[in-house]
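Please decode residue identities from the backbone states below.
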């Protein structure tokens, strides 16, 4: 398997600008993907954010396994860090996010009041890996489309302040990865959830990885979907999927290459229901 790497110039530049902008914000809203709460935690951001108050938002909870999301929210809630899971496309998240930010900032706001300072909007920097839903969250809070959104990584390329109302001002940032993935499972998880663009990854590697995880965590859903038998030989399972889905070559043989993409796309389109690829340790 070829190692996956993707750290284009705009990400490095964004990282520098984010470091500078950190001085200007009260807190950080770190968005992670509810399907991969571990792999979507950027170690660079961890170092950058350091001890700023932090709200971890698990996005795309509608695409994740509800039981696992509950466990992850409990696990990630710590001193100085709150955690909430959201579906930015369907839920009314404005109140939830603003209330959580206020709670995290309560002490600082009280100190400012005691000093006789006028109340002002909370300033938060929204950070996270590419395609995780940063701009979508900002639009959902604004209740209008002020930030550009698309289902591919690398849409937002510059930092931009969004002054939403008297309560909150959000700094939208480009999705940032890190220069080297020490753990290729992390890279494959990111690719499966579309944080890394398909052009730099091998579809066969993602498909094999996803099949292994489905067998480990959701074997019944997998077998039911395709009327499959579990086999030790994963390639044989893809042959079976290809045959059952009639993904055949011109000579009538099973076309595994098409089966890889088909399987990954079915997962991405939620054909198996909500899936979470990682368990709380
Ligand atoms: N199902 C679901 N999809 C979501 C959610 N939040 C965002 N998305 C989708 O995820 C895709 C990426 O959203 P963006 O808001 O552009 O992501 P971003 O983090 O700003 O991405 P970059 O700017 O590329 O770093 C879009 O197709 C959104 O519709 C969510 O809570 N649930
Ligand atoms: Mg964006």
């Amino acid at each position: 398997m070829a190692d996956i790497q993707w750290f284009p110039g705009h990400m490095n530049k964004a990282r520098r600008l984010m470091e500078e902008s950190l001085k200007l914000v009260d807190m950080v809203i770190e968005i992670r993907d509810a399907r991969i709460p571990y792999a979507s935690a950027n170690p660079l951001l961890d170092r950058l954010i350091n001890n700023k108050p932090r709200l971890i938002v698990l996005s795309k909870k509608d695409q994740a396994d509800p039981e696992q999301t509950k466990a992850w929210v409990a696990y990630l809630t710590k001193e100085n860090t709150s955690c909430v899971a959201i579906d930015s496309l369907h839920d009314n998240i404005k109140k939830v996010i603003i209330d959580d930010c206020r709670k995290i900032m309560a002490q600082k706001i009280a100190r400012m009041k005691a000093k006789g300072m006028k109340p002002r909007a909370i300033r938060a920097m929204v950070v996270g890996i590419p395609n995780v839903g940063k701009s979508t969250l900002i639009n959902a809070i604004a209740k209008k489309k002020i930030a550009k959104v698309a289902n591919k990584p690398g849409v937002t390329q510059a930092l931009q302040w969004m002054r939403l109302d008297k309560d909150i001002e959000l700094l939208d940032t480009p999705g940032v990865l890190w220069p080297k993935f020490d753990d290729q499972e992390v890279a494959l998880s990111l690719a499966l959830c579309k944080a890394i663009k398909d052009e730099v990854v091998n579809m066969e590697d993602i498909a094999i990885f996803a099949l292994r995880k489905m067998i480990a965590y959701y074997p019944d859903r997998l077998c039911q979907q395709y009327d499959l038998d579990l086999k030790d030989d994963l390639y044989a399972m893809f042959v079976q999927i290809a045959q059952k889905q009639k993904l055949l070559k011109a000579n009538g043989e099973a076309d595994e290459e098409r089966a890889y993409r088909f399987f990954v796309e079915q997962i991405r389109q939620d054909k198996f229901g909500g899936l979470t690829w990682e368990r709380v340790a």
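Observation: The chain has eleven helices and six strands.
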